[in-house]
């Protein structure tokens, strides 16, 4: 009976050892496949980020898909995880810096356009002021000439020219 128990234990031990070896082998293969997928994802993501003209979203950083630190077995895997997290953090900072640079460029362009527009408004206002004064003078002279001619050459049959339009608030005639 003791022999049978020993044989049973040995058999069970061999079975568990074999299962453990198979499990470790599968875990190693799974880990290698995961690393290959992470590498392919990183390369594809970097290609998408390199072509900024595309409307595609690059997706989360590679560190998002890495196992938790508790699951990492070796020191090199932990170091790789830290490097992935650092890379993710730097990518975020780079994206923010690029957006700030874009906004600053747009701001500079808008300030330039506003300055040019202000100068154009100033020039147009000066032009209007100069010409308005000259036109007022010319209108006044023409009215005086009409009054002088009307008194000399016209008879009582010709009606008087009507004033253009008189403002209610002002006593002068407006055009």
3D structure, described in words:
The chain is 73% helix and 2% strand. Strands 1-2 form a two-stranded antiparallel ribbon. A hairpin with a 6-residue loop joins strand 1 and strand 2. The chain starts with a helix and ends with a strand. The chain contains two helices and two strands, in the order H-H-E-E. It is an all-alpha fold and 175 residues long. 0% of the residues are buried. It is rod-shaped and about 155 Å long. The chain has a domain at 1-59. The model is unreliable at 170-175 (pLDDT under 50).
Chain-wise SSE layout:
Elements: H1 2-50, H2 75-153, E1 165-166, E2 173-174
Antiparallel strand pairs: 1-2
Question: Which properties best describe this structure?
Answer:
single chain; mainly alpha; 2 helices; 2 strands; disordered C terminus
């Amino acid at each position: 009976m003791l022999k049978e128990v020993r044989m049973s234990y040995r058999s069970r031990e061999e079975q568990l050892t074999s299962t453990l070896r198979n499990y470790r082998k599968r875990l190693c293969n799974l880990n290698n496949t995961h690393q290959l997928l992470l590498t392919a994802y990183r390369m594809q993501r970097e290609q998408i980020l390199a072509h900024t003209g595309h409307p595609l979203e690059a997706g989360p950083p590679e560190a998002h898909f890495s196992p938790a630190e508790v699951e990492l077995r070796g020191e090199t895997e932990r170091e790789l995880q830290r490097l992935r997290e650092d890379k993710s953090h730097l990518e975020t900072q780079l994206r923010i810096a690029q957006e700030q640079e874009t906004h600053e460029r747009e701001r500079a362009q808008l300030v330039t356009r506003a300055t040019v527009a202000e100068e154009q408004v100033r020039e147009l206002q000066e032009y209007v002021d100069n010409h308005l004064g000259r036109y007022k003078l010319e209108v006044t002279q023409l009215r005086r000439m009409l009054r002088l001619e009307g008194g000399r050459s016209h008879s009582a049959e010709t009606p008087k020219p009507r004033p253009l339009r008189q403002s209610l608030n002002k006593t002068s005639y407006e055009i």
